[in-house]
Write a structure and sequence with these properties.
This protein is α/β, with parallel strands linked by helices. It has 14 helices and 20 strands. The protein has a seven-stranded mixed beta sheet, sandwiched between helices. Strands 16-17-20-19 form a four-stranded antiparallel beta sheet, covered by helices on one side. A three-stranded antiparallel beta sheet has the order 2-1-3. The longest helix has 27 residues.
Length: 478
Amino acid sequence: MTDSQTNLKTDSSSGPGSDLHLELRGPGLRAGLTNALRDAVRTGRLAPGTRLPPSRSLAADLGVSRNTVTDSYAELVAEGWLTARQGSGTLVAEQAEPGRAGTGSRPRPAPKRPTYGLRPGAPDLAAFPRTQWLAAARRALTAAPHAAFGYGDALGQIRLRAALADYLARARGVYAEPERIVVCSGFHHGLALMARALRARRVRAVAVESYGLDLYRDLLTDAGLGTPSVHVDEHGARTDDLERLEDIGAVLMTPAHQYPTGVALRPERRTAAVEWARRTGGLILEDDYDGEFRYDRQPVGALQGLGPDRVVYFGSVSKSLAPGVRLGWMVLPEELVPEIVAAKGYGDYMSSALEQLTLAEFLTSGAYDRHVRSMRLHYRRRREQLVAALAHRAPHVHVRGMAAGLQAVLELPLGTERLVTREAARRGLAVSGLAEFRHETPESGRGLPRQDALVVNYAAPSDSAWKGALDVLCGVMP
């Protein structure tokens, strides 16, 4: 049966009425309406004492029979969610739960969902190239050999690995042979495989940058690996810290665009990191999460090009296309390939063959390059709009980091970060403070001084939401 939706216009005995959006899904409209109303009362979106519209009016709005509405009202009255009195209409019952009349308790309102989201981590999902992706999927499916529908190679579909080898060499300066590429379900999956392989090698610890996502630090810790910090300053990770750390077999880095501070690893530190890895037999785990997006010049090449024998290169389409595609890759030193394949055999042996073949077609047809170029212009405009709005409305707030990626760091006056994030939440704007990404207090003179800042994702909002989000953001600046 077709789904229905409406804005339920209500009156309240304790204040002005409101419009409540109802969306009815499922095999039956009466059951859908009953469930939607019950949920609205349970979560507090329909407050006690609220008068519901007459059954005839609601039936007309929904395009259903009046009996459907009266039956739904009657069921909820019987359950104790609603009350019906002659001459007073149908109202939301005063008690919060059926069978607990007289307690005076009220339903706890559900947490308010933010109107706008500027938390880092996602691209503009509304810009996913649906038409081009569908066309690539059709071509890939038509051309796929019968063998593609089997269990396949743990390394991934050879057609995708060959396409990635060509693209990564051309766009990111990565030395990549198809035989050294392992397809995975994104960076998280790839890092989990790497952690298992490192533990099998009896590695005890993996160094991490002092600013980054707890998610990946926790993944390594859960695998039984220590995670000492490498300090980060205005030139990226302090690679000289690697010399003072003991028992580390690898270091996880974001050299092209440090996450989340937005700085690039300076050339001499890139060289020093590779020299450390070669001298000690360690590995560099390079997370190239948004390397395609640089707006003021050509993107800096991947660190892997300096040391393909000591660098594990991770990439994915989570920022360039969408995280829901669930495809990533690892470019490995040759010696590591069997170990990663063995680790992969313990869990997700292979990613979807059809998705892999579609991405291969998307790459080889040039559609991926066109999409990245289009999004590069889109995100560049967004960043310029953010910078211009702050310069006009909050000139004392400075934008730090490179003109790159999907997020920017907004430096705030000391002592204001928590106040700003709270006020933003009160106004329906979800933002992240820099403190969320700080792993430890940097030693004096070794890293960035402790400071207050926001990490703002200017890429994620849809075009229709961007102006409103920007207005609220500027409005909460101290």
